Backbone:
């Protein structure tokens, strides 16, 4: 039996990068995947990356994660169409790279709305659905910068660090109703989010990674899949680093 056979899993920010890789992993493992993409082009891009036969269990959830009314409507739709939710992956995220002195309030508000407030709202709504079946697994996508910091990424690091506290508290609160919640914290992953990094900066970073390569989106997706599955049935409140040992002293 496949790892996520018959599970219903919602992945936010599924159009590309880690989200798209997570959709692929979950589909391959037998899940029905509710892929949140905010544009038709984004969902088309995701869909085009699969053979036709592989997409029977792939469903598009069309909304922006900061649009609270749309999010609530989608959860009502999940309840009426599927009757339950087994997994939630809070992946959608943006990065703001600005020196502290230069960070505009509107950029910080936008960052927090996407990286933090939307995650909280998805957990609230998912927990209500999952509680009915007294089981469920939620995975938040954090970042190595929450533990290590990074010059020019203070606002982004603050947003990801807040997920760490949320994961710990939610694990304590939701464990009683059978809901597990964990964070996966990637190091440097080659996606659109990091495509602007200058090659000298990348080389310097690579030299610090004991595994001597950057993570792929697939590396992160496989860790997320594990945490969604029953194989991780006694793991909650944890932060799994997917960083090639970049965090080791
Ligand atoms: N790449 C890394 O090195 C790295 C390291 C640590 C953590 N992370 C985290 O991993 C997650 C995924 O990053 P990635 O590298 O895969 O980034 P990416 O390639 O830039 O993809 C970001 C995804 O988030 C979606 N998104 C952004 N804002 C959204 C919104 N308001 N509503 C719905 N979807 C939204 C994007 O959709 P559109 O296509 O519509 O823009 C896209 O699907 C993020 O939370 C990021 O912080 C990444």
Residues:
């Amino acid at each position: 039996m496949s790892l996520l056979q018959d599970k219903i899993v919602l992945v936010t920010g599924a159009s590309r990068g880690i989200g798209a890789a997570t959709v692929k992993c979950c589909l391959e493992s037998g899940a029905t995947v509710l892929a949140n993409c905010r544009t038709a082009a984004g969902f088309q891009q995701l869909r085009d990356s699969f053979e036709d036969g592989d997409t029977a269990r792939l469903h598009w959830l069309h909304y922006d994660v900061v649009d609270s009314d749309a999010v609530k409507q989608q959860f009502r739709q999940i309840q009426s169409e599927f009757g339950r939710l087994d997994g939630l992956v809070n992946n959608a995220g943006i990065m703001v790279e600005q020196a502290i002195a230069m960070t505009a309030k509107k950029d910080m508000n936008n960052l927090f709305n996407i990286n933090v407030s939307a995650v909280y709202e998805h957990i609230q709504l998912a927990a209500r659905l999952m509680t009915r079946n007294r089981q469920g697994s939620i995975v938040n996508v954090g970042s190595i910068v929450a533990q290590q910091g990074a010059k020019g990424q203070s606002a982004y690091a603050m947003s990801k660090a807040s997920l760490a506290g949320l994961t710990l508290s939610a694990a304590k609160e939701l464990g009683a109703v059978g809901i597990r919640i964990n964070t996966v914290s990637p190091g440097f992953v080659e996606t659109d989010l990091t495509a602007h990094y200058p090659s000298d900066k990348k080389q310097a970073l690579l030299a610090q990674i004991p595994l001597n390569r950057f993570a792929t989106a697939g590396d992160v997706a496989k860790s997320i899949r594990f945490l969604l599955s029953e194989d991780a049935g006694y793991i909650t409140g944890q932060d799994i680093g997917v960083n090639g040992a970049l965090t080791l002293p």
Summary: The mean pLDDT is 96. The first strand starts at residue 8 and ends at 11. Residues 12-13, 15-19, 36, 38-39, 42, 64-66, 91-95, 114, 141, 143, 186, 188-189, 191-194 surround NAP (CB under 6 Å).
